[in-house]
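Objective 1.3, modelling of assemblies. Example input:
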Amino acid sequence: MSTKSLANKNVVVVGGGFAGMTAALQLAGQGVEVTLLEKEAAIGGFFPLLDNTFPTHSCGVCFLSPKQPAYCPFVECRLSRNLTVKTSSRPLSLKGEPGAFRLGIETVSGCVDPQKCIDCGKCVEICPVETPSEFSDGLEMRKAVYKVFPKMVSGGYLLDEENCNQCGACVEACPTGAIELGKAATVTEELEADAILLTPGFTLEEGGIKGEYGFGRYANVITSRQMERMISFSGPTGGRPLTVADKKVPSKIAFIQCVGSRDISCGRGYCSSVCCMYATKQAMFVKQRSPETEVVVYYMDLRGMGKDYEKYFNRARNEFGIEYRRSMVSTVHEDPRSRRLNLVYERDGKFVEEAYDLVVLSLGFDAPRLDFAADCGLELDDYGFVRTPEFSPGRTSIEGVFAAGAFCGPKDIPESVLEAQAAAADLAGMLMQPAAKEAEGDGEVAAGPDEGAVWSEEPRIGFFLCFCAGTLGAELDYAALTTGMKRLSHVACVETVDDLCTPEGLKGLRRFIGEYELNRVVLAACSVRELGRKVDAFATEIGFNRNAFTIVNLREQVIFPLSGSPEAATGKALSLLRAAHAGIFRALPAPNRKERLEPRTLVVGGGTAGMGTALTLAGYGFPVTLVEKSERLGGRLHQARFTLEGGDPGTLLSRLVAEVEETENIDILLAAEIVSHEGRPGAFKTVIRVGETDHLVSHGALVIATGAREAATDEYLYGEQEQVLTQSDLESRLTDAPESLQVCREIVMIQCVGSREANGREYCSRVCCTHALKNALRLQETVPEARITILYRDLRAYGLFEDYYRQARDAGILFTPYEVDNKPVVEAAGSALKLKYYDQILRREMTLEPDLLVLSTGIEPGDNGGLAEIFNLPLDAYGFFAEANSKAALVDFVGEGRYHCGLASAPVHFRETLVRARAAAGRAATFLGQLEIGSDKNAVEVSDRLCSGCGLCVTACPYGARTINPASMIAEIDYALCHGCGACAAVCPNGATQQIGFVKSQVMAMGSELIR
Amino acid sequence: MKTTIIDLAGASFNDGIEAFLTRLLESGLVGSLLVPKKTTGGDNYVHALIKNPALLADTDIAAPVMPVQAARIISNLTFRDPGEKIGVVVRPCEARALVELSKFKQITRESLLIIAVDCLGTYEPKVFSALMKEGGDPAGDLRRQASSGPCQPADGAVFRTACTICEHPALSCELVDLVVGLYGVDSGSELYFEAGDEIATALGEKGVLEFNDLTCGKRDEIITSLKESRIGERDQVLGEFSGRVDSLKGIQALLSTCMRCHNCMINCPICYCRECVFRSPTFEHTPDQYLGWAEDKGAIRMPANTVMFHLTRLNHMVISCIGCGMCDTACPNDIPVMSLFRTVGGQAQAMMEYEPGRSYDEPAPATTFRDNELEEEAGCGH
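Predicted structure (tokens):
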């Protein structure tokens, strides 16, 4: 088993932000011993700063963890068995080689002993020192003893010795004697590791922009980081945008983009990739909280390259009324009396001035500082980002040292998550080498704890009402609830608690269970989605059956909807609690049945994504069946001739194909068609037809990697005039018949053909701008005499691609923006072409006579409908396969065991396809590595005595899991196919089939409590 | 379809049938026969499973009494493949119940040779018993009437209500293997049979029955007009019932004398569950539940779940209710359960475009799904 082979391996992940947490959790979930180093006092990176993320405006972080739905990764990182978190730690040196690295680290231990601290906050109350908080760039104050951010979970409080006046008040106030002034010390040690993963993220250095636009001089010029705090409910203004100088609601706010980005004068030639989106998000929150405020965003190119981001911009414009102005602001100066800010910017060729109450500077990323990088020979680029090979993303110049996230170049959370998942998978594959791959699925299934004893006792029910860290207390009459519950039969205790979801809360619960000798527990707290899995794990840990616990959702079902009417809320809470009592009294124990997982993965699609997934999974030791509908492997890679970064896709293609063909664990089916599919995660059965032969493949996981295609168009005389090509046509021509281009003198490219249009494809295809840059640069070399003009809407050369954009401009390629409502017009003049467009800089209509017109038509999804139907998978609004969560679960479908990657998921660059392929493999490996999955709490059971063999359940079951045994004439269940949906239990007339967890007598008793 | 008329040549109807059944059993076409046979007391007929042809004496396939619905017995016999063919003599409502039971895998149709006899109406067992004890010939009286038209019950007696509104007094051999006709047949001097071609050939080959294609002239006409008058009667009886039972109060009033003996369920041929959910732990309530309900409502009827029992049975079985009226017969307190089921059933069956007992090929509505169902269910259809 792969996880067994990974069990003795050690990996150090450097950097505890989003990418680091993702990778660490994935590796730990696969059995690797992981140490997560974080230089700050708490893990989380920049994520705790974000109250909401785009484009969903929810946190979405719970989707990050290996299993969904899951809890906050901050909590999870602390709970994970194989994961050690070391905060306030940074690497100093790296020695050794793969399998035997020695990482020297330095850890600062503070004046507050985390073992003794109970998070009571008395020290903070009494501390007399106030100093600006780093968390919000000084927008709010903190004490000398403080928490780094409100929700931090790692350790207790910190004492900032620099600002501490040594008064000792906190030492006296601390009830546990956890604080000792002057105790801080630095400890160095050496960690052994088989491999290293670098995820140090990025920094936001306002140092570089101090002075620019008056930041630091004018109070009302703030950074995006400060704005993020301002729109946070936990921030200094309670989520309302206010001017800093006089705390007034601003009537006008300006966002200035690209501050410290796309600017070689400050050493940052790259695009930071995320600022257009986060500024838009902040602007939307400003409008939401303060609808009267006018918001203007000053930008150069709007760069929101994700699948759903175009829609987001449109919403910001049309629904929120945010104005976007394509113009850079040259200066900002303050009117000293009104404290208003005058922005000078260029409009229609003239400089104009406009006054604002608040100016937000959208800060770009800086590469992180890794002091030890230079000493150990880690190759960085000129900006300080780590160099990773184009065809092996995630690898670095040092073998065994991997990298992911913004350290590889500025990027958004989704890309960071994907890179982390991919690098972790790649790394795990390396750890498996060269050890012989063991056969899968031969591990012994460990027996669960004996749950019978506790279950068979007379019920002793305990109620625990959670205040949710003090947020729920005021809304309900807890005294009435307590009295009401105490009256019910078999109730041993009713207690109020504050924090059921934390390790401390569960510890307390465990104490109560022992004290009152409970064997049934009702938790009145929040949603099962948040608490359920944790409670299941807790039950197992203490040797209880999972069904000995039940959760009542007082937060979402009572307090949120009935906020402000405590009487109604208390009444409803009483009903729900009484029903829970009736239910748990009659509950049946969840069966402790385990189903073995089929270790094989079926990968559908033999292109870059499919081959990448197959190879990564094979690296783990998992068998793969790779299915391709055409006669050969490779997919779109066959059409690629060269890359922007100078690579040869042909070498990648032949390498991938050779590796796939040579790998024993990969079965390849070419010219294959999917005929049928059934089963459930862990036990799928798919029939694949090759010619006349049907192959039945049993597999535990499924990865869809079916690709997409270059969109077709009939615009701009494509198909009518031979001078009109698509970018792909041009790419082939540039390598296969460059001489045919020699005659061209006037070459025009039009971007966004059929893309980003309400009645076309609404999304941005992400790759076309860089595709055009790549072709234009090659064209320029091939035909130096030609004039090349690129007509674009927003030139989306995101991240490090910006360098190529600059290179193209320096090489004399002309870039001219056009508006979607004033598109270029192409007419045929005999065999020649006439192209008219409006030049926004010259402010007049121009006419060109191109002898080559190249259209960037974008990417459209393949015909995914058929496959989606066979596999019962969701498509998004555009026809790509839909991700479970657009922030943190991009290769997942909702639920386990089914994944997708590459162009089947979204338009992505092919380097990103390689990343997504590995990420999908990593996710599948985590799932398959469990070896077995427990049966659902809501599994069904048949009573032989009661079953009449009528077969209604057989017809009702949507999964084919029911049969009538012809000998006994009694219904049977194939648990490998059963999803626990309960259709059989519903249709069974006499309750011969019962759904554990929804037993008929239980449901009726609960129902009658609810309608009392 | 093949038909035949056999001349009794002076023998009685029962003798002629006995001779036919003896030939059938001896032919090996069936291994046993399930036939109504006079009880030891002489005042009733019950189904007997007969292996020895000598014991076919004292059987009467047309005795106008149905103490037990044969479909229930046949389900016991063929729930699993019995390993031999069993000939069963049934009335139309029993044959139709078999159709429904086959959809719930409660019978093995292939192991049955179903012989359906025209039903001339049945008496409640106690009425029939009294007529027999008085020395009457209730079966013969009805057979004689049937040769020329519908039958009237004996003086001072009535047929079971279910029979008076039954639209299926006679079946065709599409649903059964062999039909013994009585309507329009001069049963004093002849026997009339209908059979499918295949069965007819087999019976002929084995010398059990020769099919001569003779028919009875007025038979169809009599049956058609009988069905019409029964439909009229049905609409009147059920119309009167639904006028009376038109609300929850009406249902409560209807069930006021129910003593929850479950006899209606036990005698229902369609209620096929091995153990009714109302007799299972699901309905074993705890004392605090009863007390809680009593506290909430001030008072509750005990034992609880009386109305619930009938409503649940309606919910589970009404689509398949073939209207045999065994529930009426079984009820010790004369609650018109059959009228309730046929009233609700008529509407539910119409909604599903389903007629119980019509065809073996029609799937039970609970096992099928139509695209527009959800719309109708949610009330968002057009």
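The longest helix of chain A spans residues 566-586.
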